[in-house]
Amino acid sequence: PESSVQAQKAYGSDIIIPLDELHPYHIEPDALLRCVLRSHRWEARSLNEHLKDVQQQAMYAVIHGGIDPALRKASCEYLTSLPFDGFAVGGALGKDREELVEVLRVTMPHLPVEKPNHLLGIADEPSIWAGSALGVDTFDSCFPTRIARHGTLLTKEGPVYIRKQVHKEDLRPLEEGCECFTCRRHSRAYLHHLYRACEPLSATLLSIHNLQYMNGLMARIRVKIMNNEI
After folding, report:
1. pLDDT digits (tens, 9 = 90+) for 105-160
2. Any residues with CB less than 8 A from the CB of 9 and at least 6 apart, and which?
């Protein structure tokens, strides 16, 4: 735990995540309890190390407990009793989106609203909408760039699969009205060519668009929160 904190401080992390144990989804109750308690010990040690030299850096606790509501509640109660700067819901989050939402439903009411609450490793659009409605403030995931590398683009009209032949001579941008570098400068036909030719530039340009889309998505969600629509 201590060396993990030292490493994150050395490369200038703004938000430090303490060492924890990510258990598998299929785990016996006794083993899950041992895993949660071990993570709690490591996180307390990490926090002590962090507080020796804060350096204007923050540390988020990682909430554990798998899909067990009682363990999720216990994890929240213990970790919120310590002076962490924010809280990240982690560990095994369920076998599908429905179970993920249920984990958030039983976890989020036990976290303080005056501190930031984060969801670790989840960033598909339906989960973001669901998590935001339940009180999640921030998300992280390689999802937008991973699917871009495989030729899938996010748009308000639904996903675009740039590898398909239908885009071979399509001179439109990926998404009308999008202000990202990719949409302002390149057509679907050119992006289709790059992807089918396995050009490394394809992954960069498609990732740029997906990241712009995700930024726009979060902006729309913030507006809805301010308008009390979420």
Report:
1. 999 999 999 999 999 999 899 999 999 999 999 999 899 999 999 999 999 999 99
2. 16, 50, 53, 55, 57
